[in-house]
Amino acid sequence: MAVFVALGAFLMTLAGGWVAQRVTDRRHLVLGFAGGLMLGVVGLDLLPEAMEAAG
């Protein structure tokens, strides 16, 4: 099972790198989207803990 997860992670990383190389004229849009997506995931991940700590 771990091998399949590692293979999936490898393939997604490879696909993401390929897409980043193909969209050179719109790279700023891809980077902005990726940054916003990561911030959203982090915010939504920390929100339940913050609400619990706030009481």
Summarize the structure.
By secondary structure, the chain is mainly alpha-helical. Helix content is 89%, strand content 0%.
Indicate the topology.
Blueprint: H1 2-22, H2 27-54
Give the helix/strand class. Answer: mainly alpha
Work out the strand percent: under 5%
- Helix-residue proportion: over 70%
> What is the H-and-E element order?
HH
Number of helices: 2
Describe this structure in words.
By secondary structure, the chain is an all-alpha fold. The chain has a domain at 25-55. It has two helices and no strands. The N and C termini lie far apart (39 Å). The model has no long low-confidence stretch (mean pLDDT 88).
Brief descriptors of the model:
2 helices; flat; mainly alpha; 55 residues; 0% strand; 89% helix
